[in-house]
């Protein structure tokens, strides 16, 4: 196998998203969430097909009414009917790799982030998606065991280098994905199933992240040798120490071609809390689609800094802020909800 995991900024055939239905994900704040999805779909559909997963035939009519009220052209909307537990497509969808000109869906095991019990329906998402879009599916296994991996745990530069965190993939006491796995096992798995030549290991993720360290709230590739990395300026903030350690790790890192990484700083928004819970608000959870880069915003003065920073990283794309104060109540934002299908 000669697989390559494309970068998110490469051309997409479609984006997969699941219409929100699990009200418990946004306790007491569900009513505005469908309209946030409308805004997300609006900007993505301007440049590519959006495949919207709905729970049943009846829900298609409801979604269409929402989209039509926002004057969204349905020509770039396609519906997939299947029952799901949740709607976090980044984590439960297959990874799409290229083998020469063929796209292959790689199915990793999804187990509810090794934390939640309602994931039995979501484990079927890779098979349903690959069947609907008529792609060959390969299952990621190691020594005859299915490998657990969520899409938000990794980020690729499209040329063999992958970002992840030790907190998410190596911890053996909290939310354990693959018991007994060390860096050695992940090197073999990612090389075989994703074509990865080099893994860059960061330490811990951001405070409030219930996935226990997903890298897509922390650090993202914006080209083959450049990453944006969240940094916290307040030494008293609980993110400060961990983010500084990650910054230090990246100072000596290079990509798989040996080119030294450029590290661009992204601010952290002012802490958002729900009762006594810190929410994982992060500008790093942006999504790169064909027509734009959509970026979570939080009614924060740092919104402008983050949007301008990403505008410099993507000079040929429209940068669009999506109000995410309500969305992050569900412990995730734009990147968590979407998954690209490469051309």
List the helices and strands and how they pair.
Layout: E1 12-18, H1 33-45, E2 49-54, H2 57-69, E3 77-81, H3 89-92, E4 95-99, E5 102-107, H4 125-132, E6 136-139, E7 141-142, E8 145-146, E9 155-156, E10 161-165, H5 166-169, H6 183-194, E11 198-202, E12 219-223, E13 226-231, H7 240-250, E14 262-267, E15 273-274, E16 277-278, E17 287-288, E18 292-297, H8 302-313, E19 318-323, H9 334-337, E20 338-342
Parallel strand pairs: 1-2, 2-3, 5-6, 10-11, 13-14, 18-19
Antiparallel strand pairs: 1-20, 4-5, 7-8, 9-10, 12-13, 15-16, 17-18
Features:
343 residues, alpha/beta, three-stranded mixed sheet, four-stranded mixed sheet, L-arginine/glycine Amidinotransferase, Chain A, globular
Structure described in brief:
The chain is α/β, with parallel strands linked by helices and 343 residues long.
Radius of gyration: 19 Å
Number of domains: 1
- What's the CATH superfamily, by name? L-arginine/glycine Amidinotransferase, Chain A
Terminal-residue CA separation: 19 Å
For the secondary structure, the number of strands is 20
The CATH first-level class comes to Alpha Beta
Number of helices: 9
The run of helices and strands is: EHEHEHEEHEEEEEHHEEEHEEEEEHEHE
- Structural class assignment: alpha/beta
Supply the CATH architecture: 5-stranded Propeller
Mean pLDDT figure: 97
Helix content: 10-25%
Strand order of the largest sheet: 3-2-1-20
Bulk shape: globular
| pLDDT < 50 runs, ≥5 residues | none
- In what range is the share of β-strand residues? 25-35%
Largest sheet: 4 strands, mixed
């Amino acid at each position: 196998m000669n697989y390559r995991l494309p970068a998110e900024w490469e051309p997409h055939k479609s984006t997969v998203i699941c219409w929100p239905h699990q009200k418990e994900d946004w306790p007491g704040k569900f009513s505005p969430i469908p309209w946030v999805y409308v805004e997300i779909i609006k900007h993505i559909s301007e440049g590519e097909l959006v495949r919207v997963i709905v729970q049943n035939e009846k829900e298609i009519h409801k979604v269409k009414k929402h989209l039509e009220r926002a004057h969204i052209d349905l020509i770039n909307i396609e519906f997939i009917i299947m029952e799901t537990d949740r709607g976090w497509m980044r984590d439960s969808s297959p990874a799409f790799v290229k083998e020469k000109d063929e796209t292959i869906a790689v199915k990793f095991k999804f187990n509810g982030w090794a934390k939640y019990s309602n994931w039995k329906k979501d484990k079927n998402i890779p098979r349903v998606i690959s069947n609907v879009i008529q792609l060959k599916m390969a299952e990621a296994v190691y020594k005859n065991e299915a490998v657990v991996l969520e899409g938000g745990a990794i980020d690729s530069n499209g040329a063999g280098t992958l970002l992840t965190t030790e907190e998410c993939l190596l911890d053996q006491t909290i939310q354990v994905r693959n018991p007994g796995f060390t860096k050695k096992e992940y090197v073999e798995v990612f090389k075989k199933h994703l074509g990865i030549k080099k893994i860059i290991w960061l330490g811990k993720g951001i405070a409030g992240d219930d996935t226990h360290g997903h890298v897509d709230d922390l650090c993202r590739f914006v080209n083959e040798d450049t990453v944006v990395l969240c940094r916290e300026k307040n030494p008293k903030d609980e993110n400060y120490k961990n983010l500084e350690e990650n910054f230090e790790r990246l100072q000596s890192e290079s990509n798989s071609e040996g080119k030294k990484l450029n590290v661009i700083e992204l601010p952290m928004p002012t802490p958002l809390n729900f009762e006594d819970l810190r929410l994982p608000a992060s500008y790093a959870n942006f999504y790169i689609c064909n027509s734009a880069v959509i970026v979570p915003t939080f009614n924060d003065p740092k919104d402008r800094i983050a949007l301008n920073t990403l505008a410099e990283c993507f000079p040929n794309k429209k940068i669009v802020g999506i109000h995410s104060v309500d969305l992050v109540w569900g412990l995730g934002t734009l990147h968590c909800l979407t998954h690209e299908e490469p051309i």
